[in-house]
Amino acid sequence: MTQVEEVPVQTQKYDSVKADTIEVGNITRSKAEWKQLLSSEEYHILREAGTEPAFRNAYYNNKKEGIYYCGGCSLPLYSSNTKFDSGTGWPSFYAPIDPKLVKRKVDRRYGMERVEVVCAQCGSHLGHIFPYEGVPTEERHCLNSLALDFKQMDI
Ligand SMILES: [Zn+2]
C-alpha cells in the first residue's frame, strides 16, 4: 500500500488568533501619525469616534467566515463566530474573541449615556455596546466597518 502523506491544510489557522496567543500591547501615536496612517474616513471613525452610515458600509451584511482586525493596529478583535444579523445596518457581534481585546468606556456625548467600545491596544473607537435580547451575552457590539479589517479564513 502506498503511504499517503498528510499535507497540512494551508489556510490561516484560528490558532493564530486564539485568545491566549494574542498579546495586547500599548500603541500610542500622535495625531499626525494617525492621519498619515489612516484615510480621512477611517480617522474620523477611529480617532474622532465617528459613526458611518447604516447599510452603506462594507461588513454589515458580510456572512463570510473570518476574523475582524482593528483598523488602527491590526489586533484581531472579533470573529465571524459571534457575528449576527441585527438588522441595524452595522456589523454586530455578541462578543469579541476575548474580553481583554476591547475596552469599554462611558460615552456621554449627545445627551445620552452609551457604552463605547475601543481597541484595548491602540484606543481606537470601534463602536458602541447595546443591550440585546436573544444572543448569548445579551449585548450587541455595534461596530463601524471602517474601524475593522476583515480577513476571510477558516476558523
Ligand atoms: Zn487597535
UniProtKB/TrEMBL annotation:
Pfam family, one: SelR
Name the UniProt record assigns to this protein: peptide-methionine (R)-S-oxide reductase
Top-rank lineage group of the source organism: Bacteria
Top enzyme category: oxidoreductase
Domain MsrB stretches: 31-153
UniProt organism field: Salinimicrobium tongyeongense
Keywords associated with the record: Oxidoreductase
InterPro entries: Met_Sox_Rdtase_MsrB, Met_Sox_Rdtase_MsrB_dom, Mss4-like_sf
Assigned EC number: 1.8.4.12
Record GO terms (molecular function): peptide-methionine (R)-S-oxide reductase activity
Catalyzed reactions: L-methionyl-[protein] + [thioredoxin]-disulfide + H2O = L-methionyl-(R)-S-oxide-[protein] + [thioredoxin]-dithiol
Gene: msrB
NCBIfam families xref list: peptide-methionine (R)-S-oxide reductase MsrB
Oxidoreductase listed as a keyword: yes
